[in-house]
């Protein structure tokens, strides 16, 4: 299947990733791939997990542990600046979810196939000519990390690739499903964090300037920085849409802000199935990957209701917390699906530019 998968990947690069990069920055508006060759080494599937509980009977959910290390040849250019770069090799490691739905009573038994990463995969790219690319005016603030984020986020939930296998399937409902729920994250405080700032060449240990990065899929939030404090209090609230469970997790990383490179202060991963079961969690969590430190979180699972019968009750309950979130707390969710457009005016801007 690998040669045919490569054809699909080339189409994905040209039709999805290329427009995404163009739209990320005005200076990238003429970005394009001039050659895409993924190579002959196929990706490996190192493990498969099948979910049989808490799933709809008309669907099959598979989690694939994938690993791809391949030599490839991908050339790209920015015509506006006559700048070219390339990719010699790519590594991708992560968990890809495959959803087979709806199951139907006729062949091929599966109505459509949906693919996406539950969280941002580990993506490493060996560039050629990237230095020249980043020397372009307006791009010097970018980095290869930002470019990787642009690419990987378009493969991470809620973004998904949906392939219909029969003509009768409602593709819009599969590509843009209604969220399973909303996770309200009260990012409250931490205790006993490691002191990363040092003085007198490391002889005297100081404090840290901690902040947090919170992720749910490709939804990312960053807290404010608390200066010189090992027991910071943030008291901030974030709200994230949850599209898939089981399998999705809340990921938190704490860092010490520094002028050069921020120091790692610990991490935390929480299975959202547990939050949904409890509906409300208010606990101190021990930080992973560090010798000490705890994080105080309050997590609320909010269910989407089809009517506004309980709206007054919801509005009353959130007024007490309205000052905690920068944008206020939500009481309802508006979902807008832009289907298509017709009879748009033809743009002659490019032609006018050439004639002038």
Automatic annotation (TrEMBL):
Q: Which CDD domains match?
A: C2A_C2C_Synaptotagmin_like
Enumerate the InterPro entries for this protein: C2_dom, C2_domain_sf, Ext_Synaptotagmin_C2A, Extended_Synaptotagmin, SMP_LBD, Synaptotagmin_SMP
What the entry lists under PROSITE patterns is as follows: C2, SMP
Q: How does it sit in the membrane?
A: Peripheral membrane protein; Multi-pass membrane protein
Taken from the UniProt entry, a GO cellular component term is: endoplasmic reticulum membrane
Question: What SUPFAM superfamilies is this protein classified in?
Answer: C2 domain (Calcium/lipid-binding domain, CaLB) (SSF49562)
The UniProt entry, under Pfam families, shows: C2, SMP_LBD
Q: Where is the C2 domain?
A: 165-285
Please give the chief subcellular localization of this protein: membrane
Q: Which UniProt keywords apply?
A: Calcium, Cell membrane, Endoplasmic reticulum, Lipid transport, Lipid-binding, Membrane, Metal-binding, Repeat, Transmembrane, Transmembrane helix, Transport
Q: Which GO terms describe its molecular function?
A: calcium ion binding; calcium-dependent phospholipid binding; phosphatidylcholine binding; phosphatidylethanolamine binding; phosphatidylinositol binding
Q: Which domain of life is it from?
A: Eukaryota
The chain's coiled-coil residues are none
Q: Which family does it belong to?
A: Belongs to the extended synaptotagmin family.
Protein name as annotated:
ESYT2 protein
Q: Which species is the source of this protein?
A: Emberiza fucata
């Amino acid at each position: 299947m690998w040669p045919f998968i490569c054809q699909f990947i080339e189409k994905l690069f040209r039709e999805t990733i290329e427009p995404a990069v163009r739209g990320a920055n005005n200076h990238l508006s003429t970005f394009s791939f001039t050659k895409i060759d993924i190579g002959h080494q196929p990706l490996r599937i190192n493990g498969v997990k099948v979910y049989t509980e808490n799933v709809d009977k008309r669907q099959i959910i598979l989690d694939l542990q994938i690993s791809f290390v391949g030599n490839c040849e991908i050339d790209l250019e920015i015509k506006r600046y006559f700048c070219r770069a390339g990719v010699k090799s790519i590594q991708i490691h992560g968990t890809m979810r495959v959803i087979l739905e709806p199951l139907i009573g006729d062949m091929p038994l599966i109505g459509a196939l949906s693919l996406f990463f539950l969280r941002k995969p580990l993506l490493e790219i060996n560039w050629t000519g990237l230095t020249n690319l980043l020397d372009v005016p307006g791009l010097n603030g970018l980095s290869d990390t930002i470019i990787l984020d642009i690419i990987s986020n378009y493969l991470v939930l809620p973004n998904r690739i949906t392939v219909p296998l029969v003509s009768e399937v409602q593709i819009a409902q599969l590509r843009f499903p209604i969220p399973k729920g909303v996770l309200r994250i009260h990012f409250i405080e931490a205790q006993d964090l490691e002191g990363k700032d040092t003085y007198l060449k490391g002889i005297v240990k100081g404090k840290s300037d901690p902040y947090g990065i919170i992720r749910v899929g490709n939804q990312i939030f960053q807290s404010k920085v608390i200066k010189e404090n090992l027991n910071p209090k943030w008291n901030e609230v974030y709200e994230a849409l949850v599209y898939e469970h089981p399998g999705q997790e809340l990921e938190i990383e704490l860092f010490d802000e520094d002028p050069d490179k921020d120091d790692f202060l610990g991490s935390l991963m929480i299975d959202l199935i547990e939050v949904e079961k409890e509906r409300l969690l208010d606990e101190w969590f021990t930080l992973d990957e560090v010798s000490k430190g705890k994080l105080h979180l309050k997590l609320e699972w909010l269910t989407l209701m089809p009517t506004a019968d309980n709206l007054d009750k919801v509005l009353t309950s959130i007024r007490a917390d309205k000052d905690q979130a920068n944008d206020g707390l939500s009481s309802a969710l508006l979902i807008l699906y832009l289907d298509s457009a017709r009879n748009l005016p033809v743009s002659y801007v490019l032609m006018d530019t050439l004639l002038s």
